[in-house]
UniProtKB/TrEMBL annotation:
Keywords annotated in UniProt: Amino-acid transport, Cell membrane, Membrane, Transmembrane, Transmembrane helix, Transport
Protein's UniProt name: Branched-chain amino acid ABC transporter permease
An MF annotation (GO) of this entry: transmembrane transporter activity
Any one GO cellular component localisation term in the record: plasma membrane
Domain of life: Bacteria
Chain ranges passing through the membrane: 6-27, 34-51, 57-77, 89-112, 139-157, 186-211, 223-246, 258-277
InterPro entries: ABC_transp_permease, BCAA_transport_permease
GO biological-process terms attached to the record: amino acid transport
Family, per entry: Belongs to the binding-protein-dependent transport system permease family. LivHM subfamily.
Presence of keyword Membrane: yes
Compartmental location: Cell membrane
Length: 291
């Protein structure tokens, strides 16, 4: 048990970041039906913004300072790249987000360079010992920020007026426009929130591993997480993040020595097995089309 729990807690900490990133991805898809293939680059830009502010601010303040800029960045992406393509063929929108990802990759290297960078300063140490198990400060911070934020966002979508408007737009955008709902402003806000969540995940990841192009590969995990939870389910994204994070960590400890490389493939194997039973994901809504 003393060997099992540290890996499980570390996996849940990684899963918290998966969940944060998947929340932003699912939120955009639910509101606009756009698959944002640039979500990993959103994470990368957010991490570099945090790094820049950390050069002259304490790290907690640097993260807070990066969040409004990230929200503004999301608004600009929606206005400049997504809104002109709404209503077009879905392939055109997908190609636009792929092109956006490539453009952001190049812009990041042009501005900050290709070298791995490390954040100056650190977050307050919240690590503690529970019996024979040590819970790291990183794990506490990840869980402390991701879980309340995810639950709060879930409540916001289900109970608040803003959440009701987002759901109305996702169901019938034309009808929402006819009712006078400011769809353009609300959808821009959704992209802003998505960029904000990606920035927070990127900042927490950068605290542990530094800032570099390697963060984009972490962003690729959002796709199996979002599909596993259900592309239209915010709660499912959070649940799937924790689940895949825990499974990855336990696989790294117990299966990797026997099956080298299996841990990298594990998220996609789990998604495939679950989709065979539940094609709409763990918490996704079952959609029935009558013809």
């Amino acid at each position: 048990m003393a060997d099992f729990l540290p890996y499980l807690i570390g996996g849940l900490a990684n899963g918290a970041l998966y969940g944060l990133l998947a929340l932003g991805f699912v939120l955009v898809y639910r509101a606009t039906s756009v698959v944002n293939f640039a979500i990993g680059e959103f994470l990368l830009v957010g991490a570099y913004l945090t790094y820049t502010f950390a050069l002259f601010l304490p790290l907690p303040l640097a993260i807070l300072a990066a969040l409004p800029l990230a929200f503004l960045f999301g608004l600009l992406v929606e206005r400049g790249f997504v809104r002109p393509l709404l209503g077009r063929n879905v392939v055109a929108v997908i190609m636009a987000t792929i092109g956006l990802a490539a453009a952001l990759d190049g812009a990041v290297q042009l501005i900050w360079g290709p070298d791995l960078k490390y954040l100056s300063g650190s977050l307050p140490n919240l690590g503690f010992q529970a019996g024979e198990v040590f819970v790291s400060s990183r794990a506490v911070w990840n869980l402390l920020l991701a879980l309340p934020l995810g639950l709060g966002l879930l409540w916001l979508l289900r109970r608040s007026r803003y959440g009701i408007l987002v759901r109305a737009i996702s169901e019938r955008e034309v009808a929402a426009l006819a009712l006078g709902i400011p769809t353009a402003r609300i959808l821009a806000g959704v992209w802003g929130v998505s960029a904000l969540l990606a920035t927070l995940a990127g900042a927490l990841l950068a605290v542990a591993s530094g800032v570099g192009h390697n963060l984009v590969f972490f962003g690729l995990k959002v796709f199996p997480v979002a599909i596993l939870g259900g592309l239209d389910s915010v709660g499912g994204a959070l649940l799937a993040g924790f689940l895949l994070g825990a499974l990855e960590a336990l696989s790294q400890r117990y299966l990797e020595p026997l099956l080298p490389g299996f841990t990298e493939a594990l998220p996609f194997v789990v998604v495939l097995l679950v989709l065979l039973v539940r094609p709409y994901g763990l918490l996704g809504e079952r959609q029935i089309e009558r013809v």
